[in-house]
Amino acid sequence: MWSWKNVNGSYQNYDDTHSKLIEFAYQKDQNGAMKLTMNGTIYDLCFQTMKQKNQKGVTVSIQRLGLPTGPSAPTISVPTTEMGSHAIAKRDREDAERENVKNRALKTRKVVESEEKSLAKGGHIQPPVSLAPVVTKPSAGSTNPIVLAFPSISTNIFMFDVEKAAAVACGVIQKFLRAHSIPKFSTLCLMLVDVPPHGKSSLEDSEALAAFQKRWKTINEEGETRFILKVADITDLSSRGPCLAIANATNQTFAGGPATGGVNRAIHLAAGKELQSDSRYMYPEGAAPGGVYPVALRASSGLYAQGVRHVMHVLGPNMNPMRPNCLHGDYTTGCKQLTACYEALFTEFVKLYFA
């Protein structure tokens, strides 16, 4: 028999022997005594404190909710915990987020089914405003640069080695620009931006920009000028300059709240709260490493007012053990995922603006 806690705060047991699901919950009565409600029956409970060694050999105190002994006491596995309150809260948030993803997927499926029924009856589909923003593409013959601004993917919160990331990215950029040659793609511009640590302002002060510059100098034999490096805030027009699309190093659920941090948080703040909801509506299954997920901005977005028309989410490889899907130093897999990330990003950008 094994146990887990669901998003409603109740526990569930799965009885392997009898292949049945048992739902139970803990609560206090009016006198403060712990009670166990299991499949509609209430039992008395008491706290038991014990010490044991964890996997690292450290002795920890474990608090166990136990059933009083006696012939009438049910045989049930009561879960124990040695996690602190922060870890428990994090676990509960992750459980809730997984449940939300499922609910969003179900909601989207219902919308699609409704639209299909409408079409079958000869009706018309009215797309949500989030999927139908006004997007202005460059006019034919324009000589203005068509710029994609992007950060160094995976080298911040995901802790990917900067030198390795620069080698992968520069290799992809060189191959991509060779395949999209002048004059047809003369207005194409790929711009890597980063903000150095507080109080610094030169390109060399940014670890990412310095690594990319060093690598690019060693392989740019053709004197290619359509890839540029810039010290700038990716969300600020006056700092960054005009661009039509911004790449965002996202997470699996396109979350943009305070807990996310980094470039991702800054882009969500600049774009507005609709970016998160629109991204989740368009991609209810979430993001996968190596994928690209473009989202057209609403006309009411702060980034739209700067001339940005798309935020292109990309999910790079993760080397941070505190984040999901950590590769734990497997740079063979990590470099493949990062390569796929950049290739998908640049290819999708060209599809959007050079089709």
Task: Describe the protein's architecture and organization.
With 355 residues, this protein is α/β, with parallel strands linked by helices. The protein folds into 3 domains: 2-82, no CATH class; 89-122; 137-353, 3-Layer(aba) Sandwich (Leucine Aminopeptidase, subunit E, domain 1). It has 8 helices and 14 strands. The protein has a 6-stranded mixed β-sheet with strand order 11-10-9-12-14-13, with helices on both faces. The protein has a 5-stranded antiparallel β-sheet with strand order 1-2-3-4-5, with no helix packed on it. Strand 2 and strand 3 form a beta hairpin. Helix 2 (162-179) packs across helix 3 (207-219) and helix 2 runs parallel beside helix 8 (331-353). The longest helix is centred in the first third of the chain and has 36 residues, at 85-120. The protein starts with a strand and ends with a helix.
Average pLDDT works out at 77
Major beta sheet, strand line-up: 11-10-9-12-14-13
Identify the CATH architecture of the largest domain: 3-Layer(aba) Sandwich
What order do the SSEs take from the amino end to the carboxyl end, as H and E?
Answer: EEEEEEEEHEHEHEHEHHEHEH
Helical percent range? Answer: 25-40%
The unreliable regions are: 1-8, 11-22, 69-83, 123-136
Overall spatial form: elongated
CATH class of the largest domain: Alpha Beta
| Total beta-strand segments | 14
Structural class: alpha/beta
Helix and strand layout, with pairings?
Elements: E1 2-5, E2 11-15, E3 20-28, E4 34-38, E5 41-44, E6 46-53, E7 59-66, E8 80-81, H1 85-120, E9 146-150, H2 162-179, E10 188-194, H3 207-219, E11 227-231, H4 237-240, E12 245-249, H5 262-271, H6 274-282, E13 292-296, H7 302-305, E14 310-314, H8 331-353
Parallel strand pairs: 9-10, 9-12, 10-11, 12-14
Antiparallel strand pairs: 1-2, 2-3, 3-4, 4-5, 6-7, 7-8, 13-14
Helix pairs in contact: 2-3, 2-8
